């Protein structure tokens, strides 16, 4: 829980009656949507049609705290997704930074991102594309390399104070074989919490297959979880 949400609790139960007017004003301004607050500086990685980013922006009333990225170029996105132009335009109008061609496994060296640090870094349903059948060993290996590279880079861009890396991920095989938690632990992250992922929590979010001829088709989530990682505390 962020310091802003803690302040809200204290104000509600009366235990912080001496809080300043400025603190009370800040509490009122903080808006939550799912796991994310308007007070968070948020990096969204691997966006498809940017509908998740836009959901948060609409909930917050602004996107000035959001940096939304995709591995695709603008031209590739237009070919893939029917509504991406409108989504990106609205995001930018609301104040978001939108970045194209951002590789999740190398983003810590991106000319803009390298200067930033974030409270939340979010990658929803990472996937390299359908090169082999989903349960094929080669496909699993490619996806493991993707999440490992992402976690390593996200760790560099994370704020040290209560920063979290969120990966929403399908559960069950073959997805459990990606060893997400083990990958995170090996690079100095610890699992803080897991939460069931519900698309209903994010109105307008439309997960896409993102690859191949049916890139704009819906990606069926099934049972899914958001893994929340933090920097491992030194002992």
What features would you describe in this structure?
The protein is an alpha/beta fold and 235 residues long. It has helices at 3-13, 21-29, 51-60, 74-80, 84-93, 137-157, 180-186; strands at residues 32-33, 36-37, 42-45, 66-69, 97-99, 120-124, 164-170, 189-196, 224-231. Helix 3 runs parallel beside helix 5 (84-93). It is globular and about 45 Å long.
Topology:
Elements (H helix, E strand, L loop, with lengths): L2 H11 L7 H9 L2 E2 L2 E2 L4 E4 L5 H10 L5 E4 L4 H7 L3 H10 L3 E3 L20 E5 L12 H21 L6 E7 L9 H7 L2 E8 L27 E8 L4
Parallel strand pairs: 3-4, 3-6, 4-5, 6-7
Antiparallel strand pairs: 1-2, 7-9, 8-9
Strand content: 15-25%
Structural class: alpha/beta
Helical fraction: 25-40%
N-to-C order of helices and strands = HHEEEHEHHEEHEHEE
End-to-end distance = 22 Å
Shape summary: globular
* Strands side by side in the biggest sheet: 5-4-3-6-7-9-8
Using the CA coordinates, give the radius of gyration.
18 Å
Number of DSSP E strands: 9
Number of H/I helices: 7
Biggest sheet: strands, sense, closure? Answer: 7 strands, mixed
Low-confidence stretches: 1-20
Mean pLDDT: 86
Region (Disordered): 1-24
Domain 25S rRNA (uridine-N(3))-methyltransferase BMT5-like: 43-209
GO molecular function: rRNA (uridine-N3-)-methyltransferase activity
Organism: Ambrosia artemisiifolia
């Amino acid at each position: 829980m962020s310091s802003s949400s803690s302040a809200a609790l204290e104000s509600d139960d009366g235990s912080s009656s001496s809080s300043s007017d400025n603190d009370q004003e800040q509490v009122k301004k903080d808006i939550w949507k799912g796991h994310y607050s308007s007070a968070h500086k948020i990096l969204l990685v691997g966006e498809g049609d940017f509908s998740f980013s836009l959901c948060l922006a609409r909930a917050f009333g602004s996107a000035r705290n959001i940096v939304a990225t995709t591995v695709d170029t603008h031209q590739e996105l237009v070919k893939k997704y029917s509504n991406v132009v409108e989504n990106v335009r609205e995001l930018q109008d609301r104040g978001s930074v939108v970045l194209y061609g951002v590789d999740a496994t190398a983003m810590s060296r991106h000319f803009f991102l390298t200067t930033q640090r974030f409270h939340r870094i979010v990658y929803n349903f990472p996937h390299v594309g359908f090169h082999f059948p989903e349960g094929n060993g080669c496909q699993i290996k490619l996806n493991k390399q993707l999440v490992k590279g992402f976690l390593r880079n996200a760790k560099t861009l994370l704020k040290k104070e209560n920063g979290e890396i969120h990966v929403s991920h399908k559960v069950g095989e073959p997805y459990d074989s990606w060893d997400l938690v083990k990958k995170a632990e090996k690079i100095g992250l610890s699992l803080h919490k897991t939460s069931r992922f519900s698309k209903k929590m994010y109105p307008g979010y439309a997960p896409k297959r993102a690859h191949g001829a049916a890139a704009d088709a819906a990606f069926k989530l099934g049972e899914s979880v958001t893994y929340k990682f933090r920097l491992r505390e030194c002992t």
